[in-house]
Amino acid sequence: MDRLAVDPLVTLVGMVAGQGARTDRPGGTLLGGILSIERRLVAGQLRCYDTSGARAILAGLSQRGTPQDSDSADLAIVLGARDLSDDQLHLAHHGSWSVRFAGAASAVWPAATVTQRASPRMPVEILSRTVHAPGNVLVRTASYNLKPGAVLTGAFVEEKSVLLILRALHDLATGQLCAPPSADMIPAPVQPTLLEALGYAVAFAKAAAVKLHHRMRARRGKGRLFWRLAAGAGPVTDMNLAASAILPAHNHTMADPFLFEHDGTSWVFYEAMNADDGAGWIEAARLTEDGLGAPVTALTCPYHLSFPFVFRDGDEIFMMPETQQSRRLEVWRATDFPTGWTLHATAFEGMYLADSILWHAEDGQWWLLTNLSDHFAFQDHSSELYLFSVDGPSLTGLKPHPRNPVVIGAEHARNAGAPILQNGRLFRPSQNNSYGVYGYGLNLMEIRRLDDKSFEEVLLRRWTPDDLPGSRGIHHLSVLNDRYVFDWSGS
Q: What is the spatial distance between Cα 375 and Cα 401, in angstroms, rounded to a whole number?
């Protein structure tokens, strides 16, 4: 309600008391009790939203529902316990929209079902009903990575659904709302049996114990998970991860590699971090035929650094690392490559951005693609990709794209490296965040259109841990000429 009230494309004209059913099954008494206990256990991770503003907005809306109210609104958004009945659909020109989480009106208990626990992500759907099509029709869909447990997963996807609704509303208002490629809707989830509810409780307890154990080991400098680098050669569209060479480990964690050529030498810049999960820094090493040369420290700050995107503009060399802990975007200019850098420009003060890249198009336009976290309770960078036009590395003239966020969903929204231009085709590496794993897999997206009106891309290739035996995740790719470097995680 708060977002709708301040949206320039939306005018709230009234409120309707729905008379139609919203079929949902609460999940049973036992599961309800289990989730109640879980909710108390994770209460510290859930911020309480102040609803006073939304309640005041609702109190100021007039009641609609009389015959003369027919077509007096463009759309009815179902936010309560009841949908519009078939006889009420005439009240809005485009009928009603409602949101379903894995096929249910509630987002929490479906996350505890056997089917959803085995799924890579939780799907969210916007469904439409009109006078001419009173049955549910799929309007927009996205899926989001799982959190530990049903309570956090449910709260997370409910928050994410706000941006999905707003994106769909903007497309409807500007005449750009297109039906999804598939019209298949997710069936309603089956209520867990007694044994399934108990099984969920046991699985949640085990997962919580494992997470606590890993956290304690990290505090002692014995972190279990790590990121390593590997390299290979060949076309990016035909990468064989299993045939790539594992590069030597200089630190416990080496992640987010970026290839950069300088004076005939190929360098790899990457995030380095100790096993205590402390702040990361940026290292660089020469990439040779035999592997990596001795590393040097390229950049350190009092806050965490990662994703060291290094690029050239004319004779100048710049680095735009991820600096979300400083709550701004930073660009550094090389004064003594590769170890001397000075802060060149900042933008987005007070905001959380991750994995940002600048792309200089052939027509001279600079584009910034970034994973901005627009959040309340859950700071998340893996679900939305934002696009801005910009004047260059000085980060001036920033202008948001009219279709922001241009990509929604944990399956392919997050950047996984710099754009790759090969044989006249433009590719974007992106992350596949699934099964509750950050950086589970890697995608190769081909950008088909990038301009001030639209952003279009299609999925060409996907790599998962099945493509690299012994790995747990693959989440970043960099390409230079015919060579590539990626990172992978294990234990």
A: 19
The beta-strand segments (E) located in 96-207 are 96-101, 122-129, 137-144
Mean pLDDT, the chain cut into blocks of 10 residues (491 residues total): 93 92 72 94 92 95 86 90 90 94 93 94 96 92 96 96 96 88 81 91 90 76 78 93 90 91 96 83 93 94 97 97 96 98 98 96 95 93 97 97 96 97 94 96 97 95 95 96 93 63
Sheet containing strand 122-129, strands side by side: 76-77, 96-101, 122-129, 137-144
Give strand pairing partners of 486: 230, 477
CA distance 283 to 308: 9
């708060």: which residue's tokens?
A: 2
Q: How far apart are CA 11 and CA 133, in angstroms?
A: 25
> Cβ neighbours of residue 356 under 8 Å, at least 6 residues apart?
307, 309, 320, 322, 329, 368, 369, 370, 371, 415
CA distance linking residue 36 with residue 32, whole number of Å: 6
Q: How far is CA 457 from CA 185, 294, 390, 401, 441, in A?
A: 23, 38, 21, 15, 18
pLDDT attached to residue 183: 64
Calculate the dihedral angle through the C-alpha atoms of 449, 455, 459, 460, rounding to the nearest 10 degrees: 20
CB 124 within 8 A of CB 164: yes
Q: Which two tokens stand for residue 268?
A: 């790899």
Token pair for residue 441? Answer: 């897999």
Per the structure block, which two tokens stand in for 168? Answer: 């769909």
Q: Which pLDDT belongs to residue 65?
A: 85
The rounded distance, in Å, linking the Cα atoms of 51 and 265 is: 57
Asked whether the beta carbons of 237 and 446 are under 8 A apart, the reply is: no
Six-digit token pair at 364?
A: 């001279």
Tokens found for residue 408: 């929604």
pLDDT of residue 359: 95
Helix (H) or strand (E) holding 283: strand 281-288
Render 372-410 in DSSP notation, one character per residue.
E---SS---SSSEEEEEEESSTT--S-EE-TT-SSEEST
Q: In whole angstroms, what is the distance from residue 301 CA to residue 376 CA?
A: 27
Distance CA 88, CA 90 (A): 5
pTM of structure: 0.94
